Amino acid sequence: RNWGFTVYRTSYEPSTEEQWQRFLEKVQTHAYKQTLEVADASENDPYFLQIWSLFRIDARSHPALAGLGLDELRRLYNSGDGGPPVNADLRSHRVFLVADDDVLSDVDTFTVKCVEADYEASNHIPRNARLGRQRYFGWMPMKAGYIVQLWKELETFPFETIAPQTIGESHLVIWEP
Q: What are phi and psi of 84, to 5 degrees?
């Protein structure tokens, strides 16, 4: 089984083409290094080579994606428009990445939006008013260099427990394991 994530590009300003390419290269480079570390292997180790050969970043870039919001991207992901996303059939790993204006305007900070494909807001509104307001909104900002760790975390925990809680719909923390 392949492993990795689908990433949608939603920013198409003239300056973002180069930024998009840099972003994808950085994701690939960091994922390679992180896989070596997690596998506790050398570059020539057959175990590592097998794992790495299955890694995929399904980069989706088309001007029709320009400016789409997270709910629109969820519908796109769930419909399989443009082909089935990476691991859409693996319930625990139904998340995707988004490279939008915020992400591509500063590739050096190397953050990305990570989105739960099956998020339904109504499932996360507290039924008891004493518990406060909703604190999970189906996505989190994360350091893009940690996608291998995200994959490993998703093997054990649901996305909503991995994502840092928000305050007033604001993400105060960028996820780093």
A: -65, 130
> Phi first, then psi: what are they for 23, rounded to 5°?
-60, -50
SS3 32: helix
Q: Give CA–CA dist 124/115, Å, rounded.
A: 15
Phi, psi (rounded to 5 degrees) for 163: -65, 130
Give this prediction's pTM.
0.91
Residue 26 has pLDDT above 90, yes or no: yes
DSSP class of 24: H
Query: Is the model's pLDDT at 46 over the cut of 70?
Result: yes
Distance CA 124, CA 99 (A): 25
Summary mean pLDDT of the chain? 92
Closest CA to 96 of 76, 81, 110: 76
Using an 8 Å Cβ cutoff, are 9 and 63 in contact?
no
Q: In angstroms, rounded to a whole number, what is the distance separating the alpha carbons of residues 115 and 23?
A: 18
- Decide if 108 contacts 18 (C-beta within 8 A): no
Q: Enter the CATH code of domain 3-162.
A: 3.40.50
User: What pLDDT, in 10s, does the model give residues 93-141?
Assistant: 999 999 999 999 998 888 999 999 999 876 766 666 666 666 778 999 9
Boundaries of every domain in the chain: 3-162
